[in-house]
Specification:
The chain has 418 residues and is an alpha+beta fold. The chain folds into two domains: 311 residues, 2-Layer Sandwich (BirA Bifunctional Protein, domain 2); 82 residues, Anticodon-binding domain (Rossmann fold), CATH 3.40.50.800. The chain contains 15 helices and 17 strands. α1 packs antiparallel against α4, α4 crosses α10 and α9 packs antiparallel against α10. The mean pLDDT is 91.
Length: 418
């Protein structure tokens, strides 16, 4: 599905059927949890992204100066647009705001397995609710989607942590402010680069060896009781995580989740729960990632509002479904194929097709002069339910012959019934 420009994709009809099937699952999972769909322009001001992620994101933006001299960019993600929309109607939107979207996003970066320069991303967010229940609701939405795709807890693991773990652990080591943000970015690479390289990066950023040892020890914790023994039972991070895991059990999704303190999420605006979904075998990139970002609007110049959400890309999940060979074999959505054997009946076939379409049937009218054998093969190839045939002898008697494509059974009907 590679496109004309490197890192982009073409979607032929068969690809579109699969994409629409996946998007339909996105819609169903969100709506099953009471979320409403929204959208925003693909073009935004460049500043909306640099204010959120800093100037370092500029190299990844498809940005340019428009004819009015304004710096604009194709969106690399949807969250800043959502924040702008919420901020514009702050105080008038009833909370909690439960919205979702499926935007196409653009990032100029090195193309690799599961990552192109454009992709679609299912975004699900809750605004105006600081309670951990909002984070758990998002996890329920995600697991609902994964189950609907034919996956289970043996295929996917959702690794969960809380940014307050690092705030407390690093704070105890005297690491805060800008140094804290830089350290989070390094720690987020733990699963991606060797430990020795992580140690060097931390050393280069000014952290001593004893502190590095402490950090790496905490990052290896994957049990709540062990974490409580390190941070204390009264730790805000421990309390939130205990509450989250308990609520996940109420949803029946506890087998999908696992504590993993090394999950940091590199973006500095995360403030609480953070999570990533991965295939159990660890062969692919993250399927999904998200968390709580209560201070985002403040970075855009507005009044902060609690918020939590996730982004779920289309590329990695499709790769996993193909790998497991559980993608559906989708045929064109055609119910009737209308065919006339002789050209003299062309206008009759057009009238029949038009009447069928007026009743809501999905109809493919064969426009060219074709043989019966071709029409039969075509109806079978497109997965039609019926082949409606205007044949000279039957038509002269006021009849239309209809073939049930799956069974091959043919029946004559009065032409006025069509």
């Amino acid at each position: 599905m590679s496109g004309g420009v490197r890192g982009t994709r073409d979607f032929y009809p068969g690809d579109m059927r699969t994409r629409n099937w996946l998007f339909g699952k996105f819609h169903d999972a969100a709506k099953a949890h009471g979320f409403e769909e929204y959208d925003a322009p693909v073009l935004e001001t460049e500043e909306i992204y640099t204010r959120k992620a800093g100037d370092e994101i500029i190299s990844q933006l498809y940005s340019f100066e428009d004819k009015g001299g304004r710096r604009v960019s194709l969106r690399p993600e949807m969250t800043p647009s959502l924040a702008r929309m919420v901020m514009a109607r702050s105080g008038t939107l009833p909370t909690p705001i439960k919205w979702y979207s499926i935007p196409q996003c653009w990032r100029y970066e090195r193309t690799q397995r599961g990552r192109g320069r454009e992709h679609y991303q299912w975004n699900v967010d809750i605004w105006g609710m600081s309670d951990i229940r909002a984070d758990v609701e998002l996890l329920s939405v995600m697991v609902h989607l994964l189950r609907s795709l034919g996956l289970d807890e043996n295929d996917i693991i959702v690794r969960i942590s809380n940014r307050k773990v690092l705030e407390q652990a690093l704070g105890d080591l005297g690491i805060s402010g800008e140094e804290f943000t830089k350290t989070c970015v390094i720690i987020d690479k733990i699963d991606k680069v060797p430990e020795e390289k992580i140690k060097k990066m931390l050393t280069d950023s000014g952290i001593d060896l004893e502190a590095i040892s402490r950090i790496l020890s905490i990052m290896g914790v994957n049990d709540l009781d062990d974490l409580a023994s390190v941070l204390g039972d009264e730790s805000p991070a421990v309390k939130e995580l205990r509450s989250l895991f308990g609520l996940c059990a109420s949803y029946g999704i506890e087998d999908w989740i696992q504590l993993d303190v090394s999950v940091v999420r590199g973006l500095s605006y995360y403030t609480g729960t953070v999570f990533e979904a991965h295939d159990r075998k660890g062969e692919l990139r993250a399927v999904c990632g998200g968390g709580r970002y209560d201070k985002l609007i403040g970075t855009l110049g507005g009044k902060d509002m609690p918020a939590t959400g996730f982004g779920f890309g289309d590329m990695v999940i499709m790769e996993l479904l193909r790998k497991k060979e559980i993608l559906p074999n989708l045929e064109p959505d055609i119910e009737d194929v209308v065919f006339c054997l002789q050209e003299e009946n062309r206008i009759d076939a057009m009238a029949i097709a038009s009447k069928l379409r007026s009743t809501g049937r999905k109809v493919d009218l064969i426009l060219e002069e074709k043989r019966m054998k071709w029409a039969l093969k075509h109806a079978d190839r497109v997965g039609a339910e019926r082949l409606v045939m205007i044949l000279p002898e039957e038509w002269s008697r006021g009849k239309v012959k209809v073939r049930d494509v799956p069974t091959g059974v043919e029946t004559e009907y009065e032409s006025e019934d069509f």
